[in-house]
């Protein structure tokens, strides 16, 4: 019987295996790896993982915990390594005397939220942080790319550092396009891979600008590799951006140039640095060559732009992909937080702030929504189930941010808007972070469920409603002359707690059926129902809290109009059945049900009649008895029926001269059908709909008595 490995050992093994799969062929044989750092090798430093290839040596320490999001305290271990870092590097280079080994130290963690002091130590001692998101990313990438995934890792570890012994000069054509300088050249895939980096949209690249690429698909990659190995090739260019930090590139123009050409030929000196070329389009073509037999002997065409702004990179990516595989709505949202940040349209700038807040709430380890928001093209799970759109819509339908006309004129000043994006973000994000964290702490059992076990809080409808109710409370505090920006955030939360307590009590004590009712109220109406319910809970305890529309909603929600409305609809439907039949029979004679009724209505009613007859114990069911309310409208506007039979008696008083003809004059039947189709056990007929039914009853029934 085997003894189960500890979670800590399993994590170390996973880190070891990931680096092995990335192509590091020199690895420690067990967890007791000690690196000497004194001349006589008498003193050593233990590392959990050591990984090396012909160019790189990596020392890794692993720290994991089963406690989610635990605040770290690695001061002692980081300091002990940092103080002997130089000696360790010197000993590493002695171990590889014929190689120019580049050293790197990594702290790999699982479930830790790094403390500020630990972050400072990592920066001080040049130690790279590798969390569970990074581990998962490189693990998946190695499964797709094999050893070629190592280039992504090296790009992150050694960003901006020089690549030794790389031939970086290539023949190129320089030109101008769309106001941008570009270079066209061909290059061996292996060489391009070393310089390139793909900004995949996930947590690993959240600090890179701008991360816009989809994750590589293994199936598509294998198709490319098989195609290339069989002699296939791609004549279209890979599109890249060369990031020189505005320093420019050396381009040695050839002495011989075309007399009338606006382009120039010469020798282009590519940067000899890791992560200096960003792939905008063509990642599958490039990586498809990586493990092929032609990676060193073929050259692939490249169009390289120079120092594109991040918005231009995102825009180019979206334009290229517009007519290919559609960019998902969630990925579009994450891209737009970069693309629209400096937009000339003020409403678009606010949209960018909104989207950045939504994204950061899911990526910030200090947020209780960390790893619960679907970022980019990350997969949905039972706990990671909230869309960026949900948070965006919640903020959109609040008045935290200012709104503007098409001419950029101010329409309404936002309660948290400071007129520029960065300043607005710096006050609104901390507020929402603090507020949502407080709710999560006070209702932790419910919050932790996500979409599991009938969870009601950390799901789309719950988060939307929490954002909306926070807006209501802020507006209420402002109406009571509380200057929300003149007090610290902690004090603002204290002011809000009085009104949050009833909500927390309500959410923590919902029974199964109450939760189910809120969870299964789909669409915009479902979100409104949840949000209004939270308003009602506060209003019950503090009647002075009455946001716009709440009293009308409360009145409508009492179902006081349901029974009377149901009776009116039933009577109107009975009137239709008799009156339509009489008019059709009088005009068409015996064939009235064929000549006076659209074929689609005839077929539907006849089919339903046959089914009911088959199951009925009371004899034949007639097709005319199987019409839906909306069918009467279709009959009324069929052919010349409206003009000949129905226009005079079925045009509502006051609508005789409206434009749009018979379709517009019968829209009232459409509305009647919509009300009829509501589930009266759950739906509360509004006063507006009730009044509409009363006018129909007065007009159709009482005038025809």
Automatic annotation (TrEMBL):
CDD domains: DGQHR_domain (cd16413). It comes from the Bacteria. Pfam families: DndB. This is DGQHR domain-containing protein.
